[in-house]
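Schema walk-through. Below, the input block comes first and the output block second. Nothing else is stored per chain. Lengths vary across the set, and this one has 193 residues.
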Amino acid sequence: MFVCRWKIYVTQVRRVRFAGCFLASTLVHCNLFAQTHRSVESHIRFFSSAPVEDIEAVNAAGASLFNLSTGEIAFSIPIKEFRFEKTLMQEHFNENYMESDKYPTATFQGLVKNINTLQTNPQKVWAEGEMTIHGVSKNVRIEGELILQERILQIRSVFPVKLNDYNIKIPRLLFRNIAEVVEVTVLFDYEEM
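--- output ---
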């Protein structure tokens, strides 16, 4: 049932430019089960540290669904929403590396494990599932932290992504400008649906 909802979710994210509009339409069209939370705020960042320069981009347009009782989680990140300090970097990122018109989103679908719903302190958790970037899907394990306090539900994680694993090619002339492994940070704040 969750997989079906997630497929509907991803399809709608691709059609709707803003995650907020998508989530509103999801509420109207789906009767989701208890303990399901939707993201109300997201912060996604990637950082590349290379000999010539550091590159950072941020994105606040990610969308996620999380079922606290089962641990099921899914998120979608629109690639074109990453913002860079330099406009030319953003253009190269979308056209030359990520091919954002062809591969408009990065997604993850899996299970968060080691959840203790009675614990109010930040807790170490991990998620296992399938991450898709640049049209390539890989099974991954991502460590993170879950914060569950009264009305606050937040998941955050910092993890490495090896560009070669997702067929993201770096031109030989630029291999000193872009790291082969980038650091990705994801943070989602949720509210119950």
